TrEMBL record:
<feature type="compositionally biased region" description="Pro residues">
    <location>
        <begin position="354"/>
        <end position="368"/>
    </location>
</feature>
<feature type="region of interest" description="Disordered">
    <location>
        <begin position="326"/>
        <end position="381"/>
    </location>
</feature>
<dbReference type="GO" id="GO:0006565">
    <property type="term" value="P:L-serine catabolic process"/>
</dbReference>
<dbReference type="InterPro" id="IPR001926">
    <property type="entry name" value="TrpB-like_PALP"/>
</dbReference>
<protein>
    <submittedName>
        <fullName>Threonine dehydratase</fullName>
        <ecNumber>4.3.1.19</ecNumber>
    </submittedName>
</protein>
<dbReference type="GO" id="GO:0003941">
    <property type="term" value="F:L-serine ammonia-lyase activity"/>
</dbReference>
<dbReference type="InterPro" id="IPR036052">
    <property type="entry name" value="TrpB-like_PALP_sf"/>
</dbReference>
<feature type="domain" description="Tryptophan synthase beta chain-like PALP">
    <location>
        <begin position="41"/>
        <end position="307"/>
    </location>
</feature>
<comment type="similarity">
    <text>Belongs to the serine/threonine dehydratase family.</text>
</comment>
<dbReference type="GO" id="GO:0006567">
    <property type="term" value="P:L-threonine catabolic process"/>
</dbReference>
<keyword id="KW-0456">Lyase</keyword>
<dbReference type="InterPro" id="IPR050147">
    <property type="entry name" value="Ser/Thr_Dehydratase"/>
</dbReference>
<feature type="compositionally biased region" description="Basic residues">
    <location>
        <begin position="327"/>
        <end position="336"/>
    </location>
</feature>
<dbReference type="Pfam" id="PF00291">
    <property type="entry name" value="PALP"/>
</dbReference>
<dbReference type="GO" id="GO:0009097">
    <property type="term" value="P:isoleucine biosynthetic process"/>
</dbReference>
<keyword id="KW-0663">Pyridoxal phosphate</keyword>
<dbReference type="GO" id="GO:0004794">
    <property type="term" value="F:threonine deaminase activity"/>
</dbReference>
Length: 381
């Protein structure tokens, strides 16, 4: 399954009743206007040993790009006059983004997280005052419980990826990348919200959008090929993209806008995460290192990978650093310009005569008295 490639425009259309693609470039631009006063642009970094630029969303508020979509959704709801309590299911990053956004706007938020969610992410949600409900052993079980609570209590259910406001907010990552003028952008895919938003922002500029998924957690890649079976995702370091079924809205958008999908092995992901920490001094979670791991199989003169998050448990990082021994990077080739030989048809060069070296100037004798000047002699400085 490694290196599976899907070409835009050749995907089969979704067979199930997918919602209309009610999000476009104008919505991404509106999201950028809303978020500008709350979220500064994250930096880009050139990882020379990887030959790739990095969009450092691990330095975003709450340590992930997810805060963009959550905050845009709450701001857009406030503009529409919707003041209901918001509930969301998340493996961690969407929950943290929603908690921070609700805290900043003075709104109520409830997050449902699987019991195996990283402790760092659970603590981050509680820190911002949101209600945390732990339920189920996977994201999909937590999602089902959140849907049940929303129906019982008239909460607004905010999807982590299959929502127009969320997609538009994630698309602001692409708008910030436009100044870099990349020819290809690599994006991790779970439910597809980030990839759909970035594709909306950059596709009209001729940028190739390449998605990255982990072997055994490739629901979007299979769905785009027409395989809509819901298979149980395998255990992976990339818990942020571990979903059983991708979004319907994101699937429709990516069927039109996505260029390629690259499937990464778990061992490649672990090695990339360790290399990021040791060589580039960038701490990324599993899903955050996924796009860069896929970049080894993607050619581009100016490619950029989105480091989507950096909320990694210290114990997991310590284990990886002790167990993974990354291969030494190849030594860079020193490029030298060879002298151009003279062609036979060219006129011979005119020889130059050698110059004779000038003898050194004699130093004045020591203790010599200065010459006496005539009173009428002019002195020029």
């Amino acid at each position: 399954m490694d290196g599976d490639v899907a070409v835009a425009g050749q995907y089969p259309r979704p067979s199930e009743a997918a919602p209309a693609a009610a999000v476009g470039v104008a919505d991404v631009l509106a999201a950028q206007a809303r978020l500008r006063r709350y979220l500064p642009a994250t930096p880009v970094h050139h990882a020379e040993r990887f030959g790739c630029w990095l969009k450092l969303e691990n330095l975003q508020r709450t340590g992930s790009y997810k805060v963009r979509g959550a905050l845009n959704a709450l701001l857009a709801a406030r503009e529409r006059g919707d003041a209901r309590t918001v509930i969301a299911a998340s493996a961690g990053n969407h929950a943290q983004g929603l908690a921070w956004a609700a805290y900043r706007l003075g709104m109520q938020a409830i997050t449902v997280m699987p019991r195996g969610a990283p402790e760092t992410k659970v603590a981050g949600v509680a820190h911002w005052g949101a209600t945390v409900r732990l339920h189920g052993d996977s994201y999909d079980e937590a999602k089902a419980f959140a849907i049940e609570l929303a129906a019982q209590n008239d909460y607004r259910l905010l999807s982590a990826f299959d929502d127009p406001d969320v997609i538009a907010g994630q698309g602001t990552v692409g708008l910030e990348l436009a100044a870099l003028a990349p020819d290809v952008v690599l994006v991790p895919i779970g439910g597809g919200g980030l990839a759909a938003g970035v594709a909306l922002a950059l596709k009209s500029q001729g940028v190739r959008i390449v998605g990255a998924q982990v072997e055994g957690i490739d629901a979007m890649a299979r769905a785009l090929k027409g395989d809509t079976r819901e298979l149980e995702p395998v255990a992976s370091l990339a818990d942020g993209v571990r979903v059983k079924a991708p979004g319907l809205l994101t699937r429709r958008l990516l069927a039109e806008l996505l260029d390629d999908v690259v499937i990464v092995r778990e061992a490649e992901l672990r090695e990339t995460l360790v290399r990021l920490a040791l060589e580039e001094h960038v701490i990324a979670e599993g899903a955050g290192a996924l796009a860069l791991a896929a970049g080894r199989r993607v050619a581009g003169k100016r490619k950029c990978a989105v480091v989507s998050g950096g909320n990694l448990d210290a114990g997991v990082l310590a284990t990886l650093l002790s167990e993974v021994r990354p291969r030494a990077p190849r030594r860079p080739r020193r490029r030298t310009r060879e002298p151009v030989p003279a062609l036979a048809s060219q006129e011979p060069a005119i020889p130059t005569l050698p110059t004779r070296p000038r003898p050194p100037m004699a130093s004045p004798p020591p203790n010599r008295a200065p010459r006496a000047r005539h009173p009428d002699e002019e002195v020029f400085a």
